[in-house]
Amino acid sequence: MNRIVSSIGMMAAVLCAGAVAVAGQSAKVDVTGAWTFTVESAAGTSMPSVTFKQEGEKLTGRYSSALVGEAELAGTVKDQTITFTVAGNVQGTKIELKYAGTMEGKDSMKGKLSTGDFGDGTFTAKRNK
């Protein structure tokens, strides 16, 4: 009986150690490259172009849309989560676009957009091939 209990205990320890090792190996995400976003908000649908440059968790790049024009972006990528901010100017009014989303595979993402007083929205994005 002690042998059985001991064997079960060892198997449980091995299984737990394996689960911890797998959990620690989250997939590395690299969003570097050109992306096309589809943004849905109270203002309607827009399709900004975004070019990301990722170095570790640090994210920089360029944002281009009909409403905001060209603007720099900065943010982070941690595990499957991406966040970035775009500071723009719309008809003389400063606006800050805050994107927060999750990766869905290596070539797509989705999430939410916050624009402060200008309302919120949702987005999907696909990497340009």
Describe the protein in words.
- The longest helix is centred in the first third of the chain and has 22 residues, at 2-23.
- The protein is of the alpha+beta class and 129 residues long.
- The chain has one domain (33-127): Quinohemoprotein amine dehydrogenase alpha subunit, domain 2 (Lipocalin), CATH 2.40.128.
- The chain has an eight-stranded antiparallel barrel with strand order 1-3-4-5-6-7-8-9.
- It is built from one helix and nine strands.
- Mean pLDDT is 85; it is low at 9-25.
Keyword list:
17% helix; eight-stranded antiparallel barrel; alpha+beta; globular; single chain; 9 strands; Lipocalin; 129 residues
Distance between the termini: 61 Å
- How many helices? The count is 1
CATH C-level category: Mainly Beta
Oligomer: single chain
CATH architecture tag: Beta Barrel
The CATH superfamily name is Quinohemoprotein amine dehydrogenase alpha subunit, domain 2
Largest sheet: 8 strands, antiparallel, barrel
Mean of all residue-level pLDDT scores: 85
Shape by Cα distribution: globular
Stretches with pLDDT under 50, minimum 5 residues: 9-25
The structural domain count equals 1
Short description, anyone?
With 129 residues, the chain is an alpha+beta fold.
